[in-house]
Design a protein that fits this description.
383 residues; alpha+beta; 6-stranded antiparallel beta sheet; 4-stranded antiparallel beta sheet; 18 strands; 38% strand
Length: 383
């Protein structure tokens, strides 16, 4: 018996039914584990850990590093996609009679590719707006940024955004667009803040409201969807002059200011903002409930869309299953609050949002084609 070369053996393995079954079992285990983990980790972190990862990592208590313990959804899904493609090209007959199966398999492969594209390209955020308010940005509360704002011009703020990835590295941040440097003394992924008492040691901050606040690193609470970070930032002029060390955190609320060369600057650690080249104004919000209950029946937002670039000025009603799509963004009605005068819209940028629809259409066409060919053969045999 002639032995196969390594490439042929690898091709047999990648196109085997055994690999298909293994990948499907792994994906089912990951779905169950992700569902159970949402209780303690929250939805987004659980999905990132189990589904949108190539390896599931576990860090035992006391160890400074994490251990790989299971394949992630990205690895299992990628192998299943390769397995589907290899099996199709090696086993399926290339003929019009099998064209339906080819179309169906291509649609399934496109569905997998669409999920990969969504995992890496989709950006989700939220837009919170009150009746009568105009907003031109959305926020992602799961990602933070250090906002350095020149507020000298009362009509418009000049904002520089610094991602937390730079702050975590500590050291000195020298942004060419800033007339001063930012010296990072500390960064905490999660922090507990409390007012400083008379018997407490001095605060690490020397300027702003943080001068009377003590900060202590802590762990993310179980079930929390986002971190509560904090950082100690010191603006330093080019001549070495310091403006003090500021404690910045979303928990502190308002930005903290200082003056540099006659201009008013402020610092704040806030949810990451995505600015839009157009604005939305909430004209009216409605929240209907079922009679005799407090169960929501429907809630909708009537907004004015103003896009000067496109000359677009119109009213749009956003409600359940009727989102607003504009400039590559989709606005869904997500929640509400403040005595039914505040609306929360989920904002999604997903360049690949049409891929699942195309994939499902191809699968349907493939199934119908194959059914038609089988029916034709059956009827031909009867005649």
């Amino acid at each position: 018996m002639r032995r196969q070369d390594p490439i042929s053996r690898l091709a047999d393995l990648l196109s085997s039914m055994e690999l298909t079954v293994i990948c499907l079992v792994v994906l089912m285990i990951l779905v169950v584990a992700c569902t159970l983990a949402q209780v303690n980790l929250g939805i987004h972190l659980a999905v990132d850990l189990y589904i949108r990862s190539f390896i599931v990592w576990w860090r035992p208590e006391g160890l400074p590093f994490a251990l790989p313990i299971f394949p992630g959804g990205g690895l299992a899904g990628g192998l299943l996609l390769i397995n589907l493609g290899m099996a199709q090209f090696r086993r399926l007959e290339r003929s019009w009679r099998k064209a339906g199966l080819w179309i169906m398999h291509f649609g399934m492969a496109l569905l997998f590719l669409g999920e990969f594209a969504t995992a890496f390209l989709q950006v989700e955020s939220h837009l919170t707006i009150e009746e009568g308010q105009t907003v031109n940005y959305s926020q992602d509360t799961r990602r933070m940024e250090l906002a350095v704002v020149d507020g000298t011009d009362k009509d418009a703020d000049d904002v520089r955004s610094i991602p937390t990835s730079l702050i975590k590295s500590r050291g000195e941040i020298a942004d060419p667009s800033l007339p001063f440097a930012l010296r990072v003394h500390a960064f905490y992924d999660n922090a507990e803040l409390r007012m400083r008492g008379s018997d407490d040691p001095p605060s690490q901050a020397t300027a702003g409201v943080g001068a009377n606040v003590l900060v202590r690193p802590t762990e993310r609470p179980l079930g929390a969807e986002q971190d509560t970070p904090a950082a100690l930032i010191e603006p330093v002029a080019k001549d070495g002059r310091s403006y003090g060390t500021f404690l910045v955190s979303p928990s502190l609320g308002a930005p903290q200011g200082f003056s540099h060369e006659g201009r008013s600057w402020s610092l704040s650690l806030r949810p990451r903002r995505y600015y839009m080249p157009f604005s939305l104004t909430l004209k009216d919000f409605k929240h209907d409930v079922y009679p005799g209950t407090s169960i929501p029946k429907n809630f909708s937002s009537l907004v004015r869309l103003l896009d000067p670039r496109a000359g677009d000025d119109r009213d749009v009603l956003i409600y359940m299953n009727a989102p607003l799509r504009h400039d590559g963004l989709t606005f869904y009605q997500a929640s509400f609050g403040k005595d039914n005068t505040l609306s929360v819209l989920q904002v999604v940028r997903n360049p690949s949002w049409t891929v699942p629809y195309i994939a499902c259409l191809l699968v349907a066409i493939g199934l119908l084609w194959h059914f038609g060919m089988m029916l034709r053969r059956t009827l031909g045999g009867l005649s």
